[in-house]
What we know:
By secondary structure, chain A is an alpha+beta fold. Chain A contains 23 helices and 20 strands. Helix content of chain A is 37%, strand content 19%. In chain A, a hairpin with a 5-residue loop joins strand 2 (58-59) and strand 3. In chain B, helix 1 packs antiparallel against helix 15 (324-356). The longest helix of chain B is centred in the C-terminal third of the chain and has 33 residues, at 324-356. The model of chain B has no long low-confidence stretch (mean pLDDT 84).
Amino acid sequence: MSVFNQSRKTVIQLIFLAIVGAIIIRLFFLQVLQKKYKQLANEQAIERKVVYPSRGIIYDCKGRAVVTNDALYDLMVTPASVKSMDTAYFCNLVGIDTAQFRRLIYRAILKNSRFRSSVFIPLLSPEDYGRLQENLYQFPGFELVERPVRNYPYPAGASIFGYIGEVDSATIRRSKDFYLSGDFVGKNGLERSYESVLMGTRGIQYLVRDVRNRPQGPYAGGIYDTPSVAGRNLYLALDMDLQTLGERLMQNKIGAIVALDPKTGGVLALVSSPDFNPNLLRGADRSSNYARLLHDPEEPLFNRATQAGYPPGSTFKPVDALIALNEGVITPAFGMVCLGAYYGCGRVYKCTETKPGHASSLLNAIAYSCNSYFLQVFRMIVDQDHHVEDGLVNWDLHLGQFGLGHRLGIDLPGESPGYIPDTTHYDKVFGRGRWNSCTVVSVGIGQGETVETPLQIANLMAIIANHGYYYTPHLVMRVQGGDKALSSFQVRHEIPQVGESDYQTVIKGMEEVVEHGTAFDAQIPGIDICGKTGTSENYKVINGVRVKLQDHSLFGAFAPMENPKIAICVVVENAGFGATWAAPIASLMMEKYLNDSIATDRLPLLQRLEGADLIPDYIKVEKLKVDSLEKASLRRLAVGSRERMGVASNFPR
Amino acid sequence: MNRKNTTLARGIDWPVVYLFFALALVGVLSIFAVEHREGESVLKTLFHFSKTYAQQVKWLSICAIIAIVILQVDSKFFTATANLLYVAGIVLLLVVLVAGKDIKGSHSWLVIGGFQFQPAELCKLFTALALAKYLSGLETNFRRLKSQVIAIAIALVPAFITIFQNETGLALVYFCFFIPMYREGLPGEVLVVAFSLVILVISALLVNKDLLFIILSGLALVVLYLGRTAMSRHRGRILLVVLIWGFCSSFVMFAVPFAFKHILKPYQVTRINVMLGKEINPQAGYNVMQSKIAIGSGGFLGKGYLKGTQTRFDFVPEQSTDFIFCTIGEEFGFIGCLILLVIYMALLMRIILIAERQRSVFTRVYAYGVASIIFFHMAINIGMAVGLAPVIGIPLPLISYGGSSLMTFTALIFILLRLDADRQMVLR
């Protein structure tokens, strides 16, 4: 029975071939037709890692780094790798209890699966970091990962610099998914205005990971990687010494200081008071600090220098004078008799000065801040064509040219345009044709509806200092590598028609203000200062009642008279006469900037100003209310605000 | 050629030798791809045997020595000792049951002086020899049922012992001896019946057993109705149909559920269910899913040697042993897999060619045994890697890492070459 059946050999061969054929068909489906396996493989083995560039550094005008980068550490956990460790000891080190530990682990698993690492505790304090780092080897599955945060070597300028925070979903949507959840973006101030410059270019690294999610080196030798490019640095006009002094002078006061370089429009100092230490908004306590700032009745997060509107009061009078001279309704020699009040409109408008002859000329009227004189001048301007509507339109046109009633365009977010009442406004309030120059006369002395920001007042001073032009106020003088956005700050805005001699008259008057007039206290030995005080009435609705509060103290100035180097505006809310508080503060600021130091005999003045507590009573009452809130409710506030900020995105959704 | 004229190499079938070394080389390179990390000194690891590919090279060298030794042995030695070796193999299997060591859940390993091996691997070789010996015996008439039963018993006794060692995979291999038996005259019906049984088992697993019972009963009635004229003449056929129906029904209703509940291990049940798509078990499905991802991601041309991401970073479990095919699939793609399958088919066809040119039944049966063992291993191993077969841990011949397996296949092939060299003789 040697050869049983040769054909059975063929059958066996066919069985072999059929099965191998089936395998080949299956392989063809798996490898050639179906693409999903390739994708699945990449998803599980290749990690797309975003490499964050370091953010641009911000320098002040003296080349000092005022906003730098620092590293804090996130404690990361890979739940699957956590095993056999002294949990109690660990919790003790990190400062949590065992229940919290379990909760945080569960959260990490929910968020990122047990094989990928996720944040366990974000932004550890340096002490926690130090303690943990030494002992980390005892806790498998935990690692410390560097997180770039901002550092502020000078604890000042918070309202200028802004802060960075986790990007919210609206921003992600607006950016067309350019930003990813968890990214940090500029939330306010320069960080926000110059976000695109400061952030740099993110790089992407493709890393190969093994099944335990351990990195195993670059994918395909790194040929698909794109490098990250560091953010570009900003160079500011800001003088950090001046800024610090301004914040010191304004402590326990509510108000603002804006100091400009009239020649360039550069912002030398921009103080909004109360201020806060910018270092509060970094690190682990960021969200609770933010919540506290947000609910502080003093509103430290509100940038009063660019966002608050104040009735300009008498600081408005130089503009009044310039417009009148320009329109030709008066000459510098124009004078009138004022005995302490204006009776031209039937109603009595008081004048702070009663000395006879103080309104005998424009120069004197400015120096002694005569209300009667400028009420009269204002009426002469708007009534010159016997048509108050046309007159007011013309008046508003002039004001617009002086940078009032619209945003100046400073490179900070949220600037307020101020407010200049127009004919539409009065038509609405009084009815069409039912108002005249007397109805609106208080506008002429910077009261009534007119509202200006401290920035606008400082800019007005710069215009007068420059004899008729200004550059848009701006903080950033230069961006590393240049930036087109800055070109708008190179445009010289001319005030048309106003003549050189008009400026000289007004400037002379403003010099008189300081030399002999209302702002006697603002004098600095050896420097000619031109300024104008303002004391503006203001009202506030408190508990449903409109209350007249203590006047705002204002002062606008520039110095030196010849070749001005600084234009400044100081506002102290509810502090009384402009000459009492705002003028000496401005004076010290100018002295510091021009002389680089404050004379010894002026130090007592500095101390007196620094020590003065001018917080209005109604705010103190509010503060007491907040302070007396129970801790629990405060915590609730903190959680609420954190959610609004999007910090809570650490939680699983 | 000079070399072929030496006594050692006289009459050797060189194509098989080349194919053997081609596959062994693919194996070493694949294991290297799994284990090697960039920046490591290959020479250092080779000398220290610190990685599995170095171990595999060591095993390969030992196999070369074994091959040379086998080629020196007289062919008659194998016919003479076939039964003895078979008995020794059975004894070894039984010894393992008593003194064996558990490695990865299978009780199939013997440890002798730090050297561990699986007698079940070696026993395949002995069974092939014993089967060849029995079928080539002068007194054997394979047309008789008695001889067929004895032959099947020779093939399946080691299988049953292996099942008790928790090595169901290795046990299944013994069923491949039906192929040489078929070649020697086992009725084709046996293969058909075996195939039908497989279909029945799979449908029993897939389809609800009550529904299946109704289908089977319906089928039986249809057959009875269609064959009513023929059956009226042969009453016996009605009985046959009823018997088949009764067997199938009880098989479906009782035998399969019983086997699943009491004979198979829970993990094996899950694996089979996952393969059939009946159950989504992430743990059992993980291996196959990862294996499919690795092979599928290779694409048409593959990612390139040492550039695989799935097989090199532990995504696929058992990468150097049971799932070594993934490495080839990922790094060399469809083309690479095709070439590998062509090499295997070339080897198998060559062995069948060798089988058919023998004068002695012993060598022919043995050759078919070798071809069947290699084919069964390859088909199940690759089938499991691509998700066509359940996950049973059997190695890919000559490629998977492991000394026992490599030595067994070396012995299988080189004994065949030795016997083939003496094909002019009639061996019994």
